[in-house]
Amino acid sequence: MAEGTSPSLLRDGVVLLGFGLMFVLLFRRLGLGATLGYLVAGAVVGPHVLGLVGDAESKLGFAELGITLLLFIVGLELNPSRLWKMKEEIFGLGLLQVAICGLAITAIVWVGAKFSLPAALALGLPLALSSTAQVLPMLRSSGRMKTPFGERAFSILLFQDLSIVPLITIVAAMSRNPADANAPPGWLLAIYTVLAVVGLVVAGRFLLRPFFRLIGNLGEREMFVFAGLFTVIASAVDSPSHSMIAALGAFIAGVMLAD
Do 130 and 195 belong together in one domain? Predict the structure, then answer.
């Protein structure tokens, strides 16, 4: 074993991959979908059932990296011209879903739980969002990704991802003090988030295209793999304030490369 390699990390990786493969095969045979198989596999090997893996918190980084890679791949399958054709569904159906569900949950929390209106909004608006990492694999495994239903569902998911930045801005603006005394105030965090996304768009247009054009001229396929991994990780590093902002940054990078 190479020096510095953690045996526990390798063992946990084998356990996670092995149980994930086993449960996904089982659930696909039962017609229940791969996503449910992954969820059950994680619950089984987790600390509350078999306890075969170590601290679950230490595995969150790998999970967030998986979501980031997923959205990067989704971004590569799109391009700005296709997104422009889908603008009515993205900003029509997507806005309608987020607004109706967010305000409905806000009203229930505000009236039923007697929360203050800012607290109800801070809880209701994020709960209106779906998990792109769970819905997209379900659409793909069921063969609905290219159907009208799948395109509408993807439009709603895409608007939800795009609405993360405005929602964080709204929640941060309503936050009087940060939870951590050493953390930046909410309004400053919102500004950092917006600037990070704008920086990714500008970098994708003026840096990524010439960079990958140079890689293409070299004719080395391995370089594309390294360059793609570098792009995903760099986009996540540029968006450190929130894990979903990092995933959104990877999605934007993928769209810029697809154009």
Answer: yes
